[in-house]
Amino acid sequence: MSEREFKKSSILIVDDEQEHAQVMCEALQRIGHRCDVTYNLAEAQGRMQKKKFDVIVTDLMMEGRREGLDVLQLAHQQQPPPPVILVTAHGAVKTYKEAMGLGAFDFIEKPLDLEDFRAQVSRAAEHAALQKQNQSLEQQLQDTREAQGFEGIVGTSEVMRKILQTARQVAASDIPVLILGESGTGKELIARAIHNHSRRRKSRLVALNCAGLSENILEDELFGHVKGAYTGAAGDREGRFEHADGGTLFMDEIGDMPPPMQAKLLRVLENGEVVRLGSNEPIQVDVRLISATNRKITEMVADKQFREDLYFRIKGVTIELPPLRERREDIPLLIHFFMNQAAEKHHKAAERVTPDAQQLLMGYHWPGNVRQLKTAVENMIVLSPGPVLDVESLPPEIRPAGAGSPAGLSNVGGISLNQLEKEAIRSTLKMTHGNREQAAKILGIGERTLYRKIKEYDLGDDQPQRNDE
Fold first, then answer.
1. Would the CA dihedral through 397, 399, 403, 406 be positive or negative?
2. The model's pTM
3. Residue percentage of the chain with pLDDT more than 90
């Protein structure tokens, strides 16, 4: 969202001094706002019943009465209520406090400084636009929850829709599931969602991360032991397979499992029996296996680092999660989700993310994927001095050097503005894989404007095109 978009807002001006009302209207029209002008409370009420305005500017005193407060109350009957700026004579401090207590967005004194006036209205328009965006994102979150029914998994991109549909379909069966993806993409979330929507949901989901565990530790963790099996084994202990009996075992980073343990795991999967360390008695278990890895497991199979027979046993249905950089259209929704989550957790107000901060978040490469984004947003909530998350609140690795300028723009002296704009459009289209709707959002311009610029700069032929356009 850019300043240019905020300057296309719909403004209602209410003032019984017609000449003053027209001056305000002309000042706002010069920067692109659309203005309706009314001269009393009754006219304003009628206009507000017929049309929704982004911002309302009203004189406080009209016809000798404080009718501006009545306009403010009318505005607060709308959902969402538009920001209201009150205009009054100098020195009305008591009324100012009362108006702000009633929810006025801002207050400006006569005689107007037109530059300050335009800036205040533009800030109010930005607030209104971001409020609408947050409302839209909240509705998308709600739609996602209702459509997929998978709590905690956020995404409306085409690739995520397909993944969630697959997860929902396999949940009803007992087929093994192998989840592939980089660290932080949400593999355990998908595993939990599958378990929670399976017939085994009333039994346990037991998780084990295989990364960094030796063969002996893994064997003990998976199969358990009997008293005296080794030094320090003071009593019997059931392993993860027994603990998950009737439910689901989630083995994360299964690609890190030592080869000898791969053979032992395969035997359990084939006969459904585990034998505790130090015992000869098999124990029958009924467990559904969901496994995950961030490694290229097919290459490991080809290189004889992972048993081919075990691979075919665990792969059943394979779900591959994309890195966050390949589904950037989900980032605004994820930011909104994590912002609300962190604000509730830390008991802090979180109103919005500024367009500049959101653009940097959208453009970052996210090596740690969704997990890193969640941590970044939570840090912003904790460290931000107020409810608005700006560039200064971003983690150092995302925040560019300098005073909040977007990364990569520190050495642009001597380059024409047209060339800068052309390169920004070219690189953004490349980043979004030709998704013009998403590129327009990142650039902060309308889609029609983007189409016109693509034609103007002759960028149509050298950009990747989506098959669904």
1. positive
2. 0.63
3. 49
